């Protein structure tokens, strides 16, 4: 059974009189606007991706990976030296944090003449790291101060002599 419409003028339509027809120019403008919007959003996302957290927790991770065997040899040499290093932190009235370090060798003698630094490394953001150069205040005693925000940090103490690193330790601490 087939149905044949006898009067096509009586059919209902969604066309409204006086409305603006959809022209080719309007469709082109809508398409260009859509792609400009997508391009602008992509530009913002690329900018944010390049200028926010890098995902790296150590500087130059590829080079550090290549130096892994050298780091193991340095750790063995350090273990043979048997240094005992004690670090204390205190918050000063100025808001700065003071770090005091006492260093002794395996025989209990004070370790003097070393260039010592303390790195307060934020666990997941290299841009928040604070490096402090410690000055020798007495034989085997080193001190320094810096503005360090409260929170968890990795305290990395390094000592060098003649440009060669002779001691390194890394400990997770809470700066209050």
What does this molecule look like?
This protein has a 7-stranded antiparallel beta sheet with strand order 1-2-5-4-3-6-7. The chain is built from 3 helices and 7 strands, in the order αααβββββββ. The model has no long low-confidence stretch (mean pLDDT 87). It is α+β, with helices and mostly antiparallel strands and 176 residues long. It is elongated and about 110 Å long. A hairpin with a 5-residue loop joins β1 (84-91) and β2 (97-104). The longest helix has 28 residues, at 24-51. It has helices at 24-51, 61-66, 68-81; strands spanning 84-91, 97-104, 115-121, 130-138, 141-146, 151-161, 164-175.
**For the largest beta sheet, what order do the strands appear in spatially?**
1-2-5-4-3-6-7
Mean pLDDT: 87
Order of H and E elements: HHHEEEEEEE
Helix content: 25-40%
Count of discrete alpha- or pi-helical segments spanning 4 or more residues: 3
Q: Main sheet?
A: 7 strands, antiparallel
Structural class by SSE content: alpha+beta
Terminal Cα span: 88 Å
Strand element count = 7
Looking at the structure, what is the overall shape?
A: elongated
Question: Could you tell me the strand content as a percent range?
Answer: 25-35%
Q: What ranges have pLDDT less than 50 throughout 5 or more consecutive residues?
A: none
Radius of gyration: 34 Å
What descriptors fit this protein?
176 residues, seven-stranded antiparallel β-sheet
Topology, element by element:
Layout: H1 24-51, H2 61-66, H3 68-81, E1 84-91, E2 97-104, E3 115-121, E4 130-138, E5 141-146, E6 151-161, E7 164-175
Antiparallel strand pairs: 1-2, 2-5, 3-4, 3-6, 4-5, 6-7
């Amino acid at each position: 059974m087939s149905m044949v419409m006898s009067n096509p003028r009586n059919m209902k339509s969604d066309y409204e009189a006086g409305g603006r027809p959809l022209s080719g120019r309007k469709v082109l403008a809508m398409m260009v606007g859509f792609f400009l919007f997508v391009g602008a959003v992509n530009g913002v996302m690329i900018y944010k991706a390049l200028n926010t957290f890098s995902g790296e927790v150590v500087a130059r991770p590829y080079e550090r990976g290549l130096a892994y065997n050298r780091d193991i040899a340095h750790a063995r040499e350090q273990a043979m030296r048997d240094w005992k290093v004690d670090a204390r932190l205190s918050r000063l009235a100025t808001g700065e944090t003071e770090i005091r370090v006492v260093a002794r060798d395996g025989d209990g003698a004070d370790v003097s003449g070393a260039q010592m630094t303390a790195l307060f490394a934020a666990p997941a953001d290299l841009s928040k790291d604070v490096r402090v150069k410690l000055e020798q205040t007495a034989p085997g005693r080193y001190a320094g101060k810096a503005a360090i925000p409260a929170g968890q940090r990795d305290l990395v103490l390094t000592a060098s002599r003649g440009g060669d690193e002779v001691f390194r330790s890394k400990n997770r601490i809470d700066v209050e």
